[in-house]
Amino acid sequence: MKGHRMLVLLLHAVVFGAWAEEACTRTCPTACACSSTERGCSVRCDRAGLLRVPAEFPCEAASIDLDRNGLRFLGERAFGTLPSLRRLSLRHNNLSFITPGAFKGLPRLAELRLAHNGELRYLHARTFAALGRLRRLDLASCRLFTVPERLLAELPALRELAAFDNLFRRVPGALRGLANLTHAHLEHSRIEAVASSSLLGMRRLRSLSLQANRVRAVHAGAFRDCGALEHLLLNDNLLAELPAEAFLGLRRLRTLNLGGNALGLVARAWFADMAELELLYLDRNSIAFVEEGAFQNLSGLLALHLNGNQLTVLAWAAFQPGFFLGRLFLFRNPWRCDCRLEWLRDWMESSGRVADVPCAAPGSVAGLDLSQVAFGRSSDGLCVDPEELNFTASSPGPSPEPAATTVSRFSSLLSKLLAPRVPVEEVANTTEGPLNTSLSDSLPSSGVVVSGHNTRFLLGSGFLLSVVFVLSMD
To answer: Which residue ranges does UniProt annotate as crossing the membrane (predicted)?
Structure first.
């Protein structure tokens, strides 16, 4: 009995599949390809050279692809009545106008792609009035100047909006009140600010991309209604400062990207609510100062990017009391590797989560990596900074011009006398660490060997004064 039932089910599947395939292909438009899949009838009309929408589609169509044709206009009920259609793609056409009601007859449409229609420029407020089940809308690269206030209010089920690469100057007001929207892509437009009212009512928003715009200002409390936000991208904008309450309420945020702006400091107040933050990008700014305790609440941080800034020092107090165990990226900064960075060098050695911290100062360690710097100790055990290379330490202060000229000429003559005749091995640097020396240390104390003779003349104080006197008489 069981085997008989399985055979009946198998025959039913075969018969139904054959019927579905026949129904899908029976009314397939010319120049299109239709096939039955697990998700229903799929109609492929991409790259078919179409200048208008075909007059008829299979009634069972679940997906229609009209990408890369020459469509310019969508009239009312442009696709007839297709009760099973869930996905419609019209990307890379020449659409310049969509009649309100063009999508009537598509009651189950869940995904609509209109990207890369650069002549569209404008959408009527009632364009999507019939799409009550639409979940994904793609309006990228349509050169839109604005989005009518009521355009998206007709889409209560909308979850994802892609509207990047348009000509917006502000966050579209049509987004306000979209309580079910979870993902918004607004990058590569011309947005100049995120106002305190821009994102009101967006309580389920989880991902917001505003990267590569012209944002100069984020108002205090701009994200206060976005308590579910997990990923916020504000990189590659024009931000030079942020208010203390810029990110107020973002307690669930996991990724914050502020890289590629013009920030000069990192304030402690910015990250006060972000206990769940995992990735923080502050790279490619002009940051020269990090406030004490700026990262103290970021106990879950996996990576902190501070590379490409103007940092010379980074205090341990910026992380206390809870120092994170993630990766720290610090390259391309003019680090001053003195005792204030000893803690960082020790952490580099112990954790292995920091690398590439090149020293720009002091001169005795410039060019070395912080991991190679050896800090000295005083008699009472305190850290001692690496000494500066100082070639003018013996000079008490600025000298009058004649004296400076005399010393310069004397040094020139002395170098001509000494340089060709001193064996290389006498002046070679054989130390393995950074060299801390002065000009007087580089001169041989025993004398000068005259070419062709074995006689050694001592450079006593009388000889030095005589040379200076002779030169000064010139």
So the answer is: none
Output the six-digit token pair for 280: 């923080």
Reading the block at residue 188, the tokens are 């590569």
Does the pLDDT at position 193 exceed 60? yes
**Stretch 82-102: mean pLDDT:** 96
Residue range(s) occupied by CATH 3.80.10.10 in the chain: 27-167, 173-178+187-333
The Cα–Cα gap between 152 and 157 comes to 10
Task: Output the CA–CA distances (angstroms, integers) from residue 243 to 220, 306, 311, 370, 467, in the order listed.
Answer: 6, 20, 21, 34, 66
Beta bridge partners of 37: 40
pLDDT tens-digit series, residues 321-368? 656 668 999 999 999 999 999 999 998 888 888 889 999 999 999 999
How many angstroms separate the CA atoms of 155 and 135, rounded?
Answer: 8
CA atoms within 13 A on the CB side of 153: 13
Amino acid at 351: S
Nearest to 103 by CA among 154, 38, 156, 36: 154
Token pair listed for 266: 């990192």
What does the CA dihedral 415, 417, 419, 423 come to, rounded to 10 degrees?
-140
Question: Pairing between strand 383-384 and 376-377?
Answer: antiparallel
The mean pLDDT value for 203-216 works out to: 98
List phi, psi (to 5°) of 455. -75, 135
Full 3-state SS string of 352-379: CCEECCEEEECCCCCCCEHHHCCCEECC
Q: Are 69 and 45 in contact (CB under 8 A)?
A: yes
Global pTM?
A: 0.77
User: Residue 207 in contact with residue 183, Cβ under 8 Å?
Assistant: yes
- Rg of the chain, C-alpha, whole Å: 36
Q: Are 219 and 248 in contact (CB under 8 A)?
A: no
Rounded mean pLDDT, 258-274:
96
User: Cβ neighbours of residue 263 under 8 Å, at least 6 residues apart?
Assistant: 239, 240, 241, 242, 282, 285, 286, 287
What is the spatial distance between Cα 462 and Cα 14, in angstroms, rounded to a whole number?
115
Nearest by Cα to 175 from 194, 196, 202, 139? 202
63/111 Cα distance (integer angstroms)? 9
Q: How far is CA 32 from the centre of its chain?
A: 42
CATH class of 173-178+187-333: alpha beta
Report domain 27-167's class: alpha beta
Query: Which pair of structure tokens corresponds to residue 172?
Result: 């579209």
- Write b or e for each residue in 171-201: b if 16 or more Cβ atoms lie within 10 A of its Cβ, otherwise e: bbbbbbbbeebbbbbbbbbebbbbbeebbbe
Looking at residue 333, its amino acid is N
Whole-number Å distance between alpha carbons of 177 and 226 = 11
